Amino acid sequence: MTAPNPHEHAPDTTLHVGGASPYDVVVGHHLAGYLPDMVAGALRVAVICAESLVELAQQFAEPLLEGHEVTVLAIPEGEDAKTAEVAVECWEALGEEGFTRSDVVVTFGGGATTDLGGFVAASWLRGVKVVHVPTTLLAMVDAAVGGKTGINTGAGKNLVGAFHEPGGVLCDLALLETLPREELIAGLGEVVKCGFIADPEILRLVREHDADELTPGSEVLRELVERAIRVKIDVVVADLKETGGVDGHPGREALNYGHTLAHAIERAEDYGIRHGEAVAIGCVFVAELAGRAGLLDAATVAAHRELFGKVGLPTTYDAAPFEDLLATMRVDKKSRGAQLRFIVLTEVGRPAVLAGPDEEHLRASYAALAGVSG
Ligand code: NAD
Questions:
Q1: What pLDDT is attached to residue 20?
Q2: Which among 145, 279, 328, 351 could bridge 189 via Cys, Cβ 3.0 to 4.6 Å?
């Protein structure tokens, strides 16, 4: 797929996602020109975006105005959008617009918007096409790719949802210009994680560039984004429904590297910590754990602190009692039965499952997070 690129950046990159419902992920700058092709065949297009992004979304959707009835559905900011009530409001709006099975939902926003909008698209008429335009780094490298959609309930985060592959994804790095710096840095948590589980080149790029070089217009950020998306695509295509990997690879569960402790910390902090920040801490923790279990060498354990720290993410934590975190980890939906399971590395690029780790190793690894350096 090609579209005019009148700006000075390198040509756009199209990453193809195979599987039963193949689609393209385009990475570049100023990608609105791709939208008409991606919604081809639709008469109506509903653009779902947070209140604060309505103007930006309207500008982005301008190429659709000729030939389509475009409606913008404004939803609450961030996590407040991921509720059953907001989903109902969107369904009602689609009903009023007379939305048919050949019409298309476009999500424009962070992971909360792609999750909610993806879920609305998955459920309206049992599934209409959705095109994601992620506007946070986290949504570009993680939430928009892979087909997971969902909302939160009283019982917890992301407990209701559906697998619904998008019809296309536009990762327009120019949209990151307005993103607060802390949100960009938080997104780098998932990028560095991808480096550790699958792509040492990501780690080399992070090691060789200062954090302030990682700006939305920089070629290095673009390469990091493309590489992280490739990692996600490869893992997801090999294990579409999270049923498991082959040849000892944990499959899609590998993307959960660092996430077991991260989820527990997010909960202990009442979601007052950014996901990518919690993931950085969680990855340092599992590296320590793998080191203690004799699975990972000391230099790679140290590299976790070095590289998450280098992009500006936290690598120390002691704010919650370990017993509380342990209790939460035991009921994490990724645990099976009462046995704790962690994705660990045996070396960079080689994830594995560590089930039922030694409790002393767990405690010592947590203690090692408390403000030590190296
Ligand atoms: P977010 O969607 O909550 O967005 C954070 C804030 O940034 C919001 O207020 C948003 O309006 C604002 N924002 C977004 N883009 C902006 C821009 N370009 N300029 C200025 N402000 C902007 O946060 P997030 O980190 O993108 O996503 C987190 C969500 O993603 C969580 O709900 C998580 O569960 C979900 N997620 C889903 C998957 C998946 O596979 N489906 C993977 C990872 C995360």
A1: 87
A2: 279
